[in-house]
Amino acid sequence: MIRKRTLAVMLAAVLLITSASPVAAGVPTFPDVTQKMTVSTYWSDRKEGTDKVLASRKNRNKLNKALLSDSNTNLADLKKMPETVDGKALNEALYKAATADAAYYGSKFDAQGNQVTESYYTAMIANTQASDVSVHEVKYGVAVNRTTIRVFPTDLAILDDPGDNDFDNLYNSGLRVNEPFVIQSVSADGKFYYGRNDCCSGWVPAEDVAVCSSRDEWLDAWDHDSSEVLVVYGSKIKTEDSNTAPETANRLLTMGTTLELADDYEGELISNRSAYYNYVVYLPVRRPDGSFVKKSALISANAKVHEGFLALTEENIMSVSFEMLGDAYGWGGMLNSDDCSGYVRDVYKCFGLNLARNTSWQSASPVKKYDLTGYSDGQKRAIIENLPIGSTLFFPGHEMTYLGTVKGKIYVISSTSSMMNPVKDGERLRVRGVVINTLDVKRANGKTWLESLSTAAIPFAGEENKLYDKSFVGEEFSDAMKVTELVKASRSGKKLKLEWEAAEEGTYIEGYQIQYASNEDFSDAKEVNAADSNASSYIIKTAKKSGDTFVRIRNYTTVDGTQYFSGWSQAVKL
């Protein structure tokens, strides 16, 4: 038996992956983004210990189980899905769902730019109805091409804007080569399969899926240990052209694709070639009758692939994230590209993590996360700047990956559809690509991305992980809290009445702490708490009747069991 890995390849497998050169000086970048910032090592070299493994394989497996078991992620354990389906009941459910989707999309536009009416959806809805209405066994499929999971069983477009054919609401998610897909139904025209992969359900073109003869054959195609697979961490690679083996030639393999490594290679020709300086892998192939067969193929040792999942380090997260810099944005996986959540999902798949499909499900996942709602920009900054690079930041409808902070500006990378033009005020920019920008850029509503942030998460850390408790932000968080000033203070015997401006709506203040003392250094101070975020006054009933009394106030909030205080107000003498 010939060894399928050369010494050079084996050495490469244990080294950290490297990044490309900076973009050329003539390539445009966003404001405040320099050429050197377009290389992943610029960010990983800015801090110590970025080569440290942040989550072991055991911990990643544990986190995957937690993600699967949490209903908020909408993830499914395909191995535990029911083996039969009631065709009649499913038809009814699909008809109802398709009708609701058609009503939701309403008067969109077709591929020719014509505004559509209700009748446009009629054929799509009818095509959801399978001929088999019996209780039947599900089929087990494997994607043979990089394809898409769709809302309707159709190729017709559902566009927001006439002429903008690169943003089509038809699409739910991308489906990588060799991904499993449980088939529950077949469209009326036979051209689409309905079912689901691990992250969502929908319709997939039948020509892109091979149907396995048994569940065991299906599991053998994709269910392998990390040590037995080759992982694509580059944005896109292709198998070589071949006239001898067209069924495995020129196959597009996108980031996160995992293929079984052949362990039984005996030196025979693969695709009419010897295997030297190549990995030998198995690719799924669809026979003319739609059935599955796996065939040997070659992947160059120079391709951006790795034996097994990558070590989960900040350095590697940056390297993989930058593989897509400049790539096209693809809503729901269209254009063989990623939208914002698909991008993050594909990056972390290279490390063996199976994240949820969209921003809502990812931000609700059982990982270490922080609710940023109601915090000031300064408080958000104090939290974000202490997160590990590779953390994800969310506002409704978008997510991004944290890179670092330079000269007070927070930088992120994301697959972005649009934003307000950072160089032309009042103009909306159709970005449609993977870009680096600061959180100073604005949304269509005029708010900056920083102002809009609602959640921060660490995708590789479980909720129980104490290493990333928010207390690690220390005094920076308190320094960012706005000081509450007393606007009025009066005295009547032992009673002191204090008044201050109520907190602005949305400001995260839990309550107020008040000190009163007989000297201005507050060395003998007594404390009382007004534990009401809406409070704007407080009466102290136990002050001394005579002598000077000094009072001051500060606000506080409690996060993850740690109490944070703002600075003290100016002291008032009574």
Structure, described:
- With about 575 residues, the chain is α+β, with helices and mostly antiparallel strands.
- The chain folds into three domains: about 20-55 and about 310-475, Alpha-Beta Complex (endopeptidase fold (from Nostoc punctiforme)), CATH 3.90.1720.10; about 75-90 and about 130-305, no CATH class; about 480-574, Immunoglobulins (Immunoglobulin-like, Sandwich), CATH 2.60.40.
- The protein has twelve helices and 30 strands.
- The strands form nine sheets. A six-stranded antiparallel β-sheet has the order 17-22-18-19-20-21. Strands 8-7-6-3-9 form a five-stranded antiparallel β-sheet.
- A hairpin with a 7-residue loop joins β20 and β21 (about 430-440).
- The radius of gyration is 29 Å and the shape is elongated.
- It starts with 6 loop residues before the first helix and ends with a strand.
- About 40% of the residues are buried.
- Residues about 1-15 have low confidence and may be disordered.
Outline the fold blueprint.
Blueprint: H1 7-14, H2 40-44, H3 57-69, E1 84-86, H4 87-105, H5 122-126, E2 135-137, E3 139-143, E4 147-150, E5 171-175, E6 180-186, E7 192-196, E8 201-205, E9 209-211, H6 215-222, E10 229-232, E11 236-238, E12 252-254, E13 258-260, E14 278-286, E15 292-300, E16 305-307, H7 314-321, H8 340-349, H9 359-363, E17 367-371, H10 377-384, E18 392-395, E19 398-406, E20 409-420, E21 428-438, H11 449-452, E22 455-462, H12 475-479, E23 486-492, E24 495-500, E25 511-517, E26 526-530, E27 537-540, E28 550-559, E29 562-565, E30 572-573
Antiparallel strand pairs: 1-2, 3-6, 3-9, 4-5, 6-7, 7-8, 10-13, 10-16, 11-12, 14-15, 17-22, 18-19, 18-22, 19-20, 20-21, 23-24, 24-27, 25-26, 25-28, 28-29, 28-30
